[in-house]
Amino acid sequence: MVETNGSANGYPVNGRVILHIDMNAFYCSVHEAVEPEKYKDKPIAVAGSVELRKGIIVTCSYKARARGVKTGMLVREADKLCPGLILIRPDFDLYRQFSRRFMKIAYEYSPLVEAVSIDECYVDITGSKMFGTPLEIAETIQKRIRDELLLPCSIGVAPNKLLAKMASDMKKPNGISVLRKRDVPTVLWPHPCASLFGIGKKTAEKLKRLQIHTLGQLANADERLLSDRFGVLGPALKRAANGEDNSPVNPDKEQSKSIGHATTLPVNYTDRADIHRVFLNLSDQVGRRLRRQGLVAETVQISIRDPDMKTITRASKLPEPSESADDFYRTACQLFDAHWKEGLPVRLLGVTLQNLTAKQELAVQLDLFSYQKQPVKEKLNQAMDALRDKYGEGVILTAGMLGDDPSTLIRNTKRRGTSLQMDHLRLRGLEEDEY
């Protein structure tokens, strides 16, 4: 169990007990749970351009992984490795429903739950002795998620968040692993530095140039050397390699620091008009999420990734705080036009709103030309949001998303109802990230 300092029930006398709950192949598992007759125990993958069988794999089931399919792989490569692979279009509303449900189960065992993504969270159960030992609580949560949601998950049990995260990766799917502080030398130190959560490829390469290849070598490295090479990050790397992490589990009550949405495109886009329409869709989505939280944004940041996976970000401050997708869209397009050479291919685009403030706490200063339009804008946004809440996200299609040919709307309405997904511009395509 975790460090007990002599305690018989698995709880430390001084210290914490943290769980890391990691849902296994979450998107695919949700589809298996909802439609088992179609997907249960079959090689499936979530990808955006299902009909055209283009683009990349967002995630895949363990059956598909056993045949060599991997996240980020091109669909055509996955098809060769796994003939008969079943592709499913992403359904993020469905994933969020299941995410809320498994988080709700975790909350029943501790108020200290920190959601770090749609499919994982930390739970501080130091004060949850009434529910049993740490291992019993982990087993209960895992069983409830399996029985009530029909979903698999892996859980790590440890004295801090870092080790809990590492432990949850040890047995997948449906595993429970305990990682004590005293286990670090035998369990973690033999592994390469890149295996430690938080150490990326570039940092691992820099460590190799210092002849630091394993976590054991990093844990015992000279701190001055690390500081000279990595600055303040150096000592932190050494502490992490020794299994040290004092960061608390923060309940999800803090105001969002940013709201962003990104989409990987089905093919490389070069036409500026098409790219602008993507920004229009992204601005619409982040604006809606911003208004849901009663916030306004002061800064718009865009992300651009090329076919070689190189990414740049550019940001601009708005003239005044805003909740309007029009403002975000206009700024995003201006940033793109100013910083991306016309004709260069684009693989991913993203829009992130930053410097967020609660709307009710901020008196927006309206200039002479906008004060009459502002109430009209707000009423229009409220009406559109209400329609989407009632009938779904696809009930309203912004005119700018249609391109030059109005018949596009008629054609797609007949084919897909009110879907926002168009043949030539699959905006909710291959890889969508919300953060």
How would you describe the overall organization of this protein?
The protein is α+β, with helices and mostly antiparallel strands and 435 residues long. The protein contains 16 helices and 13 strands. It has helices spanning 26-34, 36-39, 62-65, 75-81, 92-107, 134-149, 161-168, 184-187, 201-209, 215-219, 223-230, 233-241, 272-292, 325-339, 373-391, 407-416; strands spanning 18-23, 44-46, 59-60, 86-88, 113-117, 120-124, 153-158, 176-178, 258-269, 295-305, 311-322, 346-358, 431-434. Strands 5-6-1-7-8 form a five-stranded mixed sheet. Strand 10 and strand 11 (311-322) form a beta hairpin. The protein is globular and about 60 Å long. The two termini are 33 Å apart.
Structural key phrases:
435 residues; alpha+beta; five-stranded mixed β-sheet; five-stranded antiparallel β-sheet; 16 helices; disordered N terminus
Summarize this, please?
This protein has 435 residues and is an alpha+beta fold.
Task: Reconstruct the topology from this structure.
Layout: E1 18-23, H1 26-34, H2 36-39, E2 44-46, E3 59-60, H3 62-65, H4 75-81, E4 86-88, H5 92-107, E5 113-117, E6 120-124, H6 134-149, E7 153-158, H7 161-168, E8 176-178, H8 184-187, H9 201-209, H10 215-219, H11 223-230, H12 233-241, E9 258-269, H13 272-292, E10 295-305, E11 311-322, H14 325-339, E12 346-358, H15 373-391, H16 407-416, E13 431-434
Parallel strand pairs: 2-4, 7-8
Antiparallel strand pairs: 1-6, 1-7, 2-3, 5-6, 9-12, 9-13, 10-11, 10-12
Helix pairs in contact: 5-6, 11-12, 13-14
